[in-house]
Amino acid sequence: MRGRPEDRGGADHMTIPSIGRAMPRTEDPPLLMGRGKYAADVRLPGLLQAAVLRSPHAHARLGAIRAKAALALAGVHAVITGDDLAGIGRIPTRLGHRIGHPECLQFPLTRDRVRYVGEPVAVVIAESRYLAEDALELIDVDYAPLPTVADARRALEPGAPVLHEVLAGNVVDRLETHRGDAARAMASATHRVRESFAIQRHTGVPMETRGLTASYDLGTRVLSLFGVAKVPHFNRRVLADLISHPEHLIQFVELEVGGGFGVRGEFYPEDLIVPWAAMRLGRPVQWIEDRHEHLMATNHSRQQHHDVEIGFDAEGAIVALVDRFLVDLGAYVRTHGVVVPELTSALMPGPYRIPNYSSVADCVLTNKTPTGTYRGPGRYECTFVRERLLDVAAARLGFDRLELRRRNFITPAEMPYEIGGASLAQKNVLDCGDYRSALDQALELAGYEQALAEQAQARGQGRYIGIGVGCVLEKAGLGPWEYARVEVDATGHVVVYSGVAAVGQGIATTLAQVCADQLGVAPETITVVHGDSRRVPFGVGGFASRGGAVALPAALEAAKAVRAKILRVAASLLEAHEDDLVIEDRGVHVRGVTDTRVTFRDLARAAVPGPPGMEPGLVAAHFFEAPKMTYPYGTHVAVVDVDVETGEVALLKYAIAYDVGKAINPLIVDGQLVGALAQGIGGALLEELVYDDQGQLLTTTFMDYLLPTSMEMPAETVVRILEETPTPLNPLGVKGVGEGGSSGCGGAIANAVADALAPLGVSITALPLSPDRLLALIQAAAPR
Under a CB-based contact definition with an 8 Å cutoff, are residues 150 and 59 in contact? Predict the structure, then answer.
């Protein structure tokens, strides 16, 4: 059972604004009718299939690759190795600062050494995927195994195998964030609490795995790619640079996407190999990742180890926070660089007033799959550490855990508030927020007082009920800009072109809603175009909860400019003043005179060349610049029932109160929060990518890598969408919502489980709280 967001509007778009309406997503009808087109649905004449030979070793010298037998199979067109790509460089980073050792970036195909299980060694191109897979088995590769290190802590020990000779050890970067004098303040603190925490390695698991189809026209030299998402314009530029092909002759076309979650749509090795092969062979080439490959080769994320200390004065005010942590990056630095630990350091203080803060993060390379972002990168991790630490401190020092938070919240009167440090090339300055309100409303939603009473009653019956809180501070609206173009075409129809990409966030619906009010049309009648690099010349993409805060304002401003053009042309045709005109129902009339009107069709044709001094056409483009991020926030409250005989955790109730500034579509906001909640629950209770000491991944199927199902979702979920603090950083007041539903789960659920097992003295310091791990903790605590 779960609550629904309030429906803020009916069907009459003329009387009810589109912005704020909980209207159904315009993307859904074709998908529900089976008319969506995904990466694996692309079919082109002469289509060939690719399969990737991946290293079975975590660390080995690469010798000869003998492919003669594979090439002898009828229907095999090519076997591509690193030697074939000798003139092609490494895949560059996209976000964060540039690392000092570009030699740790990855080549599309390895040339001398493999450094993780699943690293691409060769690619077969054949008439069918079945034939390509058969050919893989005929390729003979000489591997000379090397010592392996599969744990970031061991990678720092003297004598540990070094993955890249350019480094003296395995630390590729060290990130430091400081505010005030944390060491001095900690030394003088009345109370000090220290603890160690760990977050496991896991990853986004979308329904649709990665996939790409490339086609090259020898006549026009146009290279077309189908299936990419998230950052098509960036990927186009990277591909153009790597293969030395003019960027304007490369077309990226985004299809439907079965989930993105940060892991899909980045530039991976296969995104170079597939188009390179299509150009060399003169035939379309397709590659679709299978689930085994996905778990082994797609970006992993999250894994961190923290040693953290917090200091308080006698009244419970935080005086200092000191954090030292390791992040396991895997074998190479991929497109996200070190942005995940950067965000962990940046937002570790969260919504709390911490005058003295110090963070040192070591970014460590190991013989594991490289890492990237996963929904709420860095914030899922730091929220777990911070919120768990506050509960531990409250218990040890005798403070009430809720009052300890209230005592230290940054207040609305202190905004904007600089928390110290920077992330993504921006200082961390909180724009607005009322954190106490979000906490209080989440507690109300969860029925906190009633839950306490039920907990006391359950303990008398031998049941272990726990209540946990996690306060989330997110970041959203990453710039530096986004592009939009709005046009009324010669038939009078409205189309919006946006540089944002669709990764399942309902962006086509909200873009239409933002433009509809300006142009007096129903949002359902507006065509939205995105993810096509030839129709949309500029764009940054869909990630980091930036669509609402950056892409929507760009469309809004473009729509306003088109509205001004409509009024100007209509004033000329109707011989009236612009202030006396009304735009509605795809036409314009003089206020109070409805029998004489000009349609959008008439206006669009009259706008070419249009009135003197006006740019021709009912079209306008806008670049919305976003030099600062917004900081949405909220509180999660979890009520759990822990079975001490099995270690299973049942979620009885889950409440989220989350401030988005302004909800353009409450239905979509609600869906984003609840969908993210499911992923956060998976990370808190089940999902873990496990390696043995030899760097072999042990969780390569859904038999081993457990995902939450409907059975693991809370018995009751309630969401309250807050619009208490619209951001001043964009004209809509919109913050982001894509990640806050997951970021608080680890902290809230861990605190709830710790609360449930407090009578047993169980210490919760690591995720996931899987049944086997939790049962071991319970059994270990039993003698005490």
Answer: no
pLDDT exceeds 50 at position 1: no
Q: Tell which CATH classification among 3.40.50.1000, 3.40.50.1400, 3.30.365.10, 3.30.479.30 matches the domain 377-473+630-781.
A: 3.30.365.10
How many helices and strands (H and E) does the chain possess?
A: 20, 28
End-to-end CA distance of the chain: 38
Phi/psi class of residue 356: alpha, beta or left (left: φ > 0; alpha: ψ in -120 to 50)? beta
More confident residue, 120 or 15: 120
Measured between alpha carbons, how far is residue 174 from residues 177, 335, 359, 707 in Å?
10, 18, 10, 33
User: Distance between CA 660 and CA 680 in Å, rounded?
Assistant: 19
Other CB atoms within 10 A of residue 558 CB: 27
Is cis: bond before 768, omega within 30 of 0? yes
- The pLDDT of residue 783 is 66
The CATH fold of domain 5-36+478-625:
Aldehyde Oxidoreductase; domain 4 (3.30.365)
For residue 122, give both structure tokens.
Answer: 């060769």
**Measured between alpha carbons, how far is 380 from 378 in angstroms, rounded to an integer?**
6
The CB-side HSE value for 56 (13 A sphere, CA atoms) comes to 7
**What is the pLDDT at residue 228?**
78
Q: Tell me the three-class secondary structure of 205-252, residue by residue.
A: CCCCCCEEEEEECCCCCCEEEECCCCCHHHHHHHHHHHHCCCHHHEEE
Write down how long the chain is. Answer: 784
Higher confidence at residue 416 or residue 424? Answer: 416
Whether the model clears a pTM of 0.90, i.e. scores above it, the answer is yes
Structural domain boundaries in the chain: 5-36+478-625, 41-146+209-257+264-297, 377-473+630-781
Kindly tell me if the per-residue pLDDT of 495 is higher than 60: yes
Residue 422 binned pLDDT confidence (cut-offs 50, 70, 90): confident
Structure token pair of residue 690: 């496990």
Q: Assess whether pLDDT exceeds 80 at residue 781.
A: yes
Amino acid found at 429: V
Alpha-carbon distance of 649 to 652, in angstroms, equals: 9
Cα–Cα distance between 633 and 475 in angstroms, integer? 8
Distance CA 423, CA 97 (A): 9
- Of 221-230, 409-418, 639-648, least confident by mean pLDDT is 221-230
3-state DSSP percent of the chain in helix, strand and coil, to 5:
30, 25, 45
Which residue reads 């400019």 in tokens? 561
Q: Which residues pair with residue 488 across a beta bridge?
A: 494
**CA atoms of 429 and 421, how far apart (whole Å):** 9
Strand ranges (DSSP E) for 563-703? Answer: 581-584, 587-590, 593-599, 619-625, 633-642, 649-659
Q: pLDDT tens across 701-742, in order?
A: 999 999 999 999 999 999 999 999 999 999 999 999 999 999
Residue 539 to residue 561: CA distance in whole angstroms? 19
CATH architecture of 41-146+209-257+264-297: Alpha-Beta Complex (3.90)
Same fold? 5-36+478-625, 377-473+630-781: yes
CA atoms within 13 A on the CB side of 240: 17
